[in-house]
Amino acid sequence: MRTRFETVSLPLDVPFEIARGTTETAENVVVEIEHGGETGYGAAAPARRYGETAATVEAVLPELLAEVEAVGDPHARRTIGARMATVARANPAAKAAVDIALWDLAGKLLSEPVYRLLGCSAGGNEPPTSFTIGLDETETMVERAREAVESGYPVLKLKLGTDRDVETVSAVRETAPDATIRVDANEAWAPKEAVGKCHELDEYDVEFVEQPVAADDPDGLGYVYERSPLPIAADESCRTAADVPAIADRCDIANLKLMKTGGLTPAVELIDAARAHGLAVMCGCMIETNVSIAAAANLLPLLDYADLDGSLLLESDPYTGVPVSSGRFDLRRVDRGTGARPP
Ligand SMILES: [Mg+2]
């Protein structure tokens, strides 16, 4: 097996602001694993929130890829995953890049799309992705919402976390009366404040509220969940399957991301754990190239909600992925692997 990796800088269409800060260019690290005449592609989209940067990914990847080469079997994803866990305790985005590349490679070697290797069929009615509107002046958010709706996106996700939250949602609702609107506070609210906001936002037909309070405040999350008229999704509070029991009675929806779990293999574990605890499941993303978005799209048949617009927020993406139209990914057009293609 031959392995290599490369960091790619991905400028965003417009600077992306959330309650924690602003991103103008995303750095992803693309991993290639070659075996039997095929190449599998994976990518890391590191997030500072989870202790990673392109530099930490580049620093740990040689050790992770050494385990891939030592095992030498592209289908031994769980064996490789267990060995990666002994090499690096954290570094989930770096591990995700390796795991995704292995799934893509396995699909290519077996001439099957990854969703089929996951035991799923694709009917074309998988949940559509939301299009995310970052924090900005209310008029700017309304304008972006209008553009997104005109581009055919049926679901908008509004980033919140300011003293204009209700005003913003009200103005977007007026502009987009038929859109599904979900909101994400990215840990910005205090529990009592969050309950108040949920009651106010309930007037504007909001689908659900994501991560209202700090991830290290599970009691606060439970407090909001018990009092909110709107469903609650846990994102920062839900990194891996091991977090599911703690959020199970404190939210309605578990929001997984490949860059938090460490790839598709542990993402399936999280989905199974969430289902076992009666939670609905959503898959989100960071600002990501199609290499890893395509991998996440293969989970769509297992999901209730999708927020896989990472590549759609880029000015341009050198990689192509699963064909997407009006927010709907068409997995039936993936012939093998994840569906990601190099430039
Ligand atoms: Mg979120």
TrEMBL record:
Keyword Magnesium: yes
Entry's Gene Ontology molecular function annotations: metal ion binding; racemase and epimerase activity, acting on amino acids and derivatives
Keywords: Isomerase, Magnesium, Metal-binding
Mandelate racemase/muconate lactonizing enzyme C-terminal domain residues: 138-231
UniProt cofactor(s): Mg(2+)
CDD domains registered for this protein in UniProt: L-Ala-DL-Glu_epimerase
Coiled coil: none
GO BP term, pick one: amino acid catabolic process
Database matches in PANTHER family: O-SUCCINYLBENZOATE SYNTHASE, O-SUCCINYLBENZOATE SYNTHASE-RELATED
Protein name, per record: Dipeptide epimerase
Species assigned in the record: Natronomonas aquatica
